[in-house]
From TrEMBL:
GO biological process: alpha-amino acid metabolic process
GO molecular function: pyridoxal phosphate binding; transaminase activity
Annotated protein name in UniProt: RNA polymerase sigma-70 factor, ECF subfamily
High-level lineage: Bacteria, Bacillati, Actinomycetota, Actinomycetes, Candidatus Nanopelagicales
InterPro entries: Aminotransferase_I/II_large, Class-I_PLP-dep_aminotransf, PyrdxlP-dep_Trfase, PyrdxlP-dep_Trfase_major, PyrdxlP-dep_Trfase_small
Annotated organism of origin: Candidatus Planktophila lacus
CDD domains, per the entry: AAT_like
Keyword Transport: no
Length: 419
């Protein structure tokens, strides 16, 4: 993995690198992308990537949706569209968000190329170099990369098994402001968080919203996994409780198909025009074809049943991973027990470096993401994210068994070295 990163960074001639804008120095490959070349090999059990499992999505049905769209409305589907997004899809997005308690006006929605683009646009609008963005500890690697590119200073806020800790948020705000720095927003994933899988309970959501409202700090609520609860529904979205101070990001990547690349931002009315202008300058307009594909799917197919089938598929895989961790990992290891989403977060003894351990895992034919990838400051070296969404339960058990053996050997070796 380190070799991949080095080749990427040193492949630019020095005379060309000197012509780059200073912000280009923050454009670095993520740990996960660097892993893909290895983890995608068929002999490797990849517990690394968070790719949705499309085996539960009927391809004949999707082919029918696309075929009918082209035959009945191809002239519109293959044409430019609105920079804000198709009006019908924005109305349907309101229906989707209503499942999590959100009452929204379609005019406050901006459709984007995945929620990742929405995150980029928000960062472009708000962040000046040196501004502070508060994030969970650990946090989504794609968000950290975006904030880095806009030259933000990322400050992590402590989490526990119930998500972000409100008292730690108060301490972080006080510390940052005492240093004379400006906080632009708090970014968090309250539902089955990436990378930990934890769920933020309703009472903490309210407390965090109150803190941020009192302190004049926007909340950016990223919610790709909210409808993927296995055992019970997630609490209402934070946006359902505060429509003026919460910027809500949604996506169809996990509930329909990631390849369609359709997400959205639900923003306070005062921010909508800026977001549309930023989007138009970036992509002109989101794809009419993929928007209308999703719109047709939502209009004509039992999409709630489809989400339920995804939940069942992921629950079986979650159970396989938790059972395998219990069976094959040493007793010194601890891990989260997610009620939904894609991920388990594993903590090992602090003397274990999961990034340094990766080559041994690859030799054993298993891949994961080292924990330091999810921190802006290199913290978390003794942790790892394991993804259960894509492999079969049998492959998950095989991978966790192999990884447990590597962890046990590494602990034994490190323990002997410390004596």
């Amino acid at each position: 993995m380190s070799e991949v990163s080095v080749r990427y960074q040193t492949g630019v001639p020095q005379n060309l690198e000197q012509r780059f804008a200073t912000r280009a120095a923050g454009m670095l490959p993520s740990e996960i992308r660097s892993l893909f070349a290895v983890a995608s090999r068929p002999e490797i059990v990849s517990l690394a990537g968070g790719m949705p499992n499309l085996s539960a999505l009927p391809m004949e049905m999707m082919a029918g949706v696309v075929n009918q769209l082209i035959l009945s409305n191809g002239a519109e589907a293959l044409q430019y569209g609105s920079g804000q997004g198709h009006p019908k899809l924005r109305e349907q997005i309101c229906d989707v968000m209503a499942l999590e308690g959100i009452r929204a006006n379609p005019d406050d929605i901006v459709v984007t190329t995945g929620s990742q683009q929405a995150l980029d646009l928000i960062s472009r609008i708000f962040i000046d170099p040196g501004d502070v963005v508060l994030v969970e500890a650990p946090s989504y690697v794609g968000a950290l990369g975006t904030f880095r590119q806009y030259e933000a200073s990322v400050v992590h806020v402590e989490m526990d098994m119930n998500g972000l800790v409100p008292d730690a948020l108060r301490v972080a705000i006080k510390s940052v402001r005492a240093a004379g720095r400006k906080i632009k927003f708090l970014y968090l994933i309250p539902n089955y968080q990436n990378p930990t899988g934890v769920l933020l309970p309703a009472d903490r959501r309210t407390e965090i919203l109150n803190i941020c409202r009192e302190e004049g700090i926007f909340v950016v609520e990223d919610n790709p996994y909210g409808l993927l609860g296995f055992d019970r529904p997630s609490p209402n979205a934070m946006r359902a409780e505060d429509s003026e101070n919460v910027i809500y990001l949604g996506s169809f990547s996990k509930t329909i198909a990631s390849g369609l690349r359709i997400g959205w931002a639900l923003v306070p009315q005062s921010l909508k025009d800026k977001l549309v202008i930023a989007s138009e300058s970036s992509i002109l307009c989101p794809s009419n074809f993929t928007q209308l594909t999703i719109s047709s799917y939502l209009a004509d197919q039992p999409w709630r049943d489809q989400i339920a089938s995804f939940c069942e598929l992921y629950k079986v895989r979650r159970d396989a991973m938790l059972e395998s961790l219990e069976q094959y990992f040493p007793k010194e290891a601890t891990w989260t027990k997610p009620g939904g989403g894609f991920y388990v977060w594993v903590n090992l003894p602090p003397e274990i470096d999961t990034k340094a351990m990766m080559p041994k895992a690859i030799v054993a034919k298993v891949a994961y993401v080292p924990g330091n990838a999810f921190y802006a400051d290199g913290f978390g070296s003794w942790s790892m994210r394991l993804s259960y969404c894509h492999p079969t339960p049998e492959r998950i058990r095989e991978g966790v068994k192999a990884l447990g053996g590597i962890v046990t050997q590494e602990m034994s070796r490190r323990g002997t070295a410390l004596k």
